[in-house]
Amino acid sequence: MIHQSLKCHKAAILLGGHSSRMGGQPKFLLKDGKGQSYLKRQIKALEKADRIYLSAADAAQLALIQNVYKDKDCYGLIDVVKDCGPLGGLYTVLQQLKDEDEWIFVTACDVPELTESMVGSLIQMSEDAYEQGYDCMVYQDSRGRIHPLCGLYRPSLLPVIQQMLRYKDYKMMHLLIRSRCLIVSSAEMGIPDTCFVNINTPEAYERWKNTSLNMPKEQKILCICGIKNSGKTTYIEKLLKEIKSHGKSAAVIKHDGHDFEGDRPGTDTYRYHQAGAAATAIFSKNRYMINADEEIDLQQLINGFSDADVILVEGMKQSELPKIEIVREKISRTLSCCGKNLIAVVTDCEADFDGIEKWPLEDCSRCLNYLLQGGLRC
């Protein structure tokens, strides 16, 4: 699902309290291997919000933030209730909006893999949720875990939160139980569980830092197979848009089982080729193209796309690479793939395919989730 713009929506980052499990080190100042802090990563993911609040535990914490991030268009808040955990921060944020009946996206500073798409997917559903009377919307990951600090909230929750604070009940899960909360499946939105990683200890921080985006890329390679007119190109187009919306890059390699003309008549490079050039190339400051009359294998092409997060190969049904096959009922109801590693059948057929997992043809979220879960980080 491609998210809508975050324009005209507000967001808040709860900066946390004493960070006792981190030895007192403020988690929002922790950095990845490239030297980028948690907070800067999150502000980047929320940059389309028209206002970002930073909810601090006290004046000292707010002063530290304002000194470090003085160039950012963020609004600092100091918790109006102390030592109440995330519930106190949420209460402070919603108090700012008590005269406005609108959604605000709320997250914690120790969720460094937050993405724009995670926010946008909820916003895309927010109008319907509002009309149905929901007070909040949060994600549930593929393991069934609910993430209260990655969701949309409304000021209509303030009376419930006030009552919880009065009785010293600070558990966010209790708030969800006592409110009209819409639980959204992250898998159905194409969001992998790795996006919800939560860093609370020095050990967890070191593990995350060593596997964060500064490390060499772990490419995901997937062949998209199917007979002629099965819909491979259309499916790849949809998948490319989703990959890009998650901040990832993708390259596509198309295999032709026959032969093809790599240039079009009338261009200079076509004329050079017709005149006998063994290879031609054209380039500008933005792109380049090479056309050569020589054999090349798939691995050589893959090696040429080392910067891509995902490589999609159209065809190569006999290869040993991981693959999916598209089976469209109007065209065929049988498989054509050979070899190993058939991950799933993407189909609109009701038929079973020898126990192979089936993914819906009209929705590429299952494939996207496979790509992001399989070594890539959202």
From TrEMBL:
<dbReference type="InterPro" id="IPR004435">
    <property type="entry name" value="MobB_dom"/>
</dbReference>
<dbReference type="GO" id="GO:0005737">
    <property type="term" value="C:cytoplasm"/>
</dbReference>
<feature type="binding site">
    <location>
        <position position="83"/>
    </location>
    <ligand>
        <name>GTP</name>
    </ligand>
</feature>
<keyword id="KW-0501">Molybdenum cofactor biosynthesis</keyword>
<keyword id="KW-0479">Metal-binding</keyword>
<dbReference type="GO" id="GO:0006777">
    <property type="term" value="P:Mo-molybdopterin cofactor biosynthetic process"/>
</dbReference>
<keyword id="KW-0808">Transferase</keyword>
<dbReference type="Pfam" id="PF03205">
    <property type="entry name" value="MobB"/>
</dbReference>
<dbReference type="InterPro" id="IPR052539">
    <property type="entry name" value="MGD_biosynthesis_adapter"/>
</dbReference>
<comment type="function">
    <text>Transfers a GMP moiety from GTP to Mo-molybdopterin (Mo-MPT) cofactor (Moco or molybdenum cofactor) to form Mo-molybdopterin guanine dinucleotide (Mo-MGD) cofactor.</text>
</comment>
<feature type="binding site">
    <location>
        <position position="27"/>
    </location>
    <ligand>
        <name>GTP</name>
    </ligand>
</feature>
<feature type="binding site">
    <location>
        <position position="110"/>
    </location>
    <ligand>
        <name>Mg(2+)</name>
    </ligand>
</feature>
<dbReference type="InterPro" id="IPR025877">
    <property type="entry name" value="MobA-like_NTP_Trfase"/>
</dbReference>
<feature type="domain" description="MobA-like NTP transferase">
    <location>
        <begin position="11"/>
        <end position="174"/>
    </location>
</feature>
<dbReference type="InterPro" id="IPR013482">
    <property type="entry name" value="Molybde_CF_guanTrfase"/>
</dbReference>
<keyword id="KW-0342">GTP-binding</keyword>
<feature type="binding site">
    <location>
        <position position="110"/>
    </location>
    <ligand>
        <name>GTP</name>
    </ligand>
</feature>
<dbReference type="InterPro" id="IPR029044">
    <property type="entry name" value="Nucleotide-diphossugar_trans"/>
</dbReference>
<feature type="binding site">
    <location>
        <begin position="14"/>
        <end position="16"/>
    </location>
    <ligand>
        <name>GTP</name>
    </ligand>
</feature>
<dbReference type="GO" id="GO:0005525">
    <property type="term" value="F:GTP binding"/>
</dbReference>
<keyword id="KW-0460">Magnesium</keyword>
<keyword id="KW-0547">Nucleotide-binding</keyword>
<keyword id="KW-0963">Cytoplasm</keyword>
<dbReference type="GO" id="GO:0061603">
    <property type="term" value="F:molybdenum cofactor guanylyltransferase activity"/>
</dbReference>
<feature type="domain" description="Molybdopterin-guanine dinucleotide biosynthesis protein B (MobB)">
    <location>
        <begin position="221"/>
        <end position="348"/>
    </location>
</feature>
<dbReference type="InterPro" id="IPR027417">
    <property type="entry name" value="P-loop_NTPase"/>
</dbReference>
<dbReference type="Pfam" id="PF12804">
    <property type="entry name" value="NTP_transf_3"/>
</dbReference>
<comment type="similarity">
    <text>Belongs to the MobA family.</text>
</comment>
<protein>
    <recommendedName>
        <fullName>Probable molybdenum cofactor guanylyltransferase</fullName>
        <ecNumber>2.7.7.77</ecNumber>
    </recommendedName>
</protein>
<dbReference type="GO" id="GO:0046872">
    <property type="term" value="F:metal ion binding"/>
</dbReference>
